[in-house]
Design a protein that fits this description.
It is a multi-pass membrane protein. The chain is an alpha/beta fold. It has 20 helices and 17 strands. It is globular and about 75 Å long.
Length: about 500
Amino acid sequence: MDKIAKRIFSRVFFVGVAILVQVVWIILSVVFLGSRLPFMTILVEAVSLLAVLWLVNKDINPAYKLAWTILILAVPIAGAVIYFMFGKSRLAKDLNEKLEAARQETGEFLGEKPEVMRKLEELDPEAARQSRYICRYAGFPAYQKTETRYFRVGEELYLAMIEELNKAEHFIFLEYFIIDDGIMWQGILDILEYKVRMGVDVRLIYDDVGCVNTLPANFYLQLRKRGIQCEVFNPFLPIASVVLNNRDHRKIMVIDGHTAFTGGINLADEYINRKKRFGYWKDTGIMLKGEAAWSFTLMFLQMWSVLSGQKQDYLKYRPHEWHQEEFEDDGFVQPYGDTPLDHETVGENVYLNIINRAKKYIYIFTPYLVTDNEITTALCLAAKSGIDVRIVTPGIPDKKLVFLLTQSYYDKLIQSGVRIFEYKPGFLHAKSFVCDDEIATVGTINLDFRSLYLHFECGVWMYRSEAVLQIKEDALSLFKECREITWEDCKRKSSVKRLLQSILRLFAPLL
C-alpha cells in the first residue's frame, strides 16, 4: 500500500495526469466540434493528410515516419493531435538557437589538430576517415597525450571517481541523466560540499525527467543553498509539449579539465550494485586523463551556457596553467557528443563506421536492441561476410515490453550469422563497441531510436588505446556468463509472442 500511495502522490503521477487531461481535452474538443460543425471533420481529415504528407517529405528515419503515419491514419483525430504535441524531435526554437550559439562560441577551441591527423592518416587512412567525420559533424577533434582506463563494472568506476574527486583543486563539472539519493550519491555529495568550502567551482546539470522519480522538484534549490551551482535540463512541467521528447542522457564528470569520465553509469546505487533491481547490474565506463578531457569540459560548458544564460570564459578552464606535466600517449582518443538539434545522427554513424570497417570481429554491448534498417543491414552484411559479430543484451530486463521488442530483432540477425548472447546474471546496461583490436567506443548511446535520434548523448572513440584491448578482454569474459540464443530458440516462439512482437515493431520508433 505504501508503494501505491507513493506513486499516486508522486510528481510524475500528477504531471502525467495533467498532460493526459490536456491531450484528452483537445481530442474531445475536436470530436465535439466535428459533431456540431460538419466542416470540422473535413478539416481534421485534411490536417491529418497534411501531417502525413509533411512527415513523408521530412528528412528523418523511414521507420520513424512509418510509425507516426500508421498512428495518424489509424486514428486521424487522436493520432494527429498526439503527433503535433509529441511527435517532433526538435527542441523549442529559443533553446535550439542558444545551443547552436554555444557551439559556435566553442568552435574556435575545437578545430582539427593537423599533426594528430597526419599521424593517424599515416597509420590507418580508414581510421582517419572515421575520426575526420566525428570532428566535422560532432565538432570535437581527436587527441593524443591522453591516457585511457576502462572500467568493466560500476563499482570499479565509482572508486576511481571518488579518488579523482578528492584530488580536485579548481573545478568539478557533472552532467547526469539520473541521480538518486543513496550510498553512491551521498559519497559524491560529501566531497562536493567539502570542495565548495575549499573554493572549488562545483557545477551540476541533471535531467528532470530522468530524475522525476528519484529527486524532489526543488532539488536544484537544495544544492544551490549548499554552494553547488545547479541547472535542470528541460524541466518536467504539466504541459503537453514536444520538448518532452528530448532528454539529456549524457553522463559526464570532469575534474580540473584534465580528467573526465563517461559511460553508461548514472549516480544511483543500482549502478554500483548496492541496490538490487534486476539481478547483477553490469555497466561500463571510461576515464580519460590528458588533453581529450578538454572536449568534455567544453561539452559541459556549452550546455551550462544555455541553461544558465551566463557567458562563459572557456579558456579559464583549460588545465595547462595548473598542470604543466605532459600525459603519456595512449593511441588516439576522440570524445564526441550527439544532439537532436540537427539531422546528423552522429552516434549512429559512429557505430555504422565501426561495423563497416570490421575485418575480423565486432563485439557489442547494448541494453536495448531496437535498431533501424541501416544498422540491422550493416550487422547482417558483416556477419554474412565472415566477420565474427557478437551482441550481448540483458538476461533480466528493466523494461519487459522493450525487451520483448529487442528479442524480435534476433531472428533476422541470427539467420545472417550474428551471434546473440543474453547476460544470465542480470541486467546489462553497457553501451560499448570494440572491433579488430584497434577501434572501440564507450558512451551513453543505446541501440534504440530515442538514443540515436532524440536525446543528447556522448561517447569516446578510441584507436589503438589500451582501453580497446581491455574492452575486448571484458567481452570475451562476459560471453562465458551468457546464454547464447540459437535459431532453435527463435523457432520455438509462440504465435501469441510473435503477434505481440509484430505489433511492437510497428511502433518501435515511438517507444
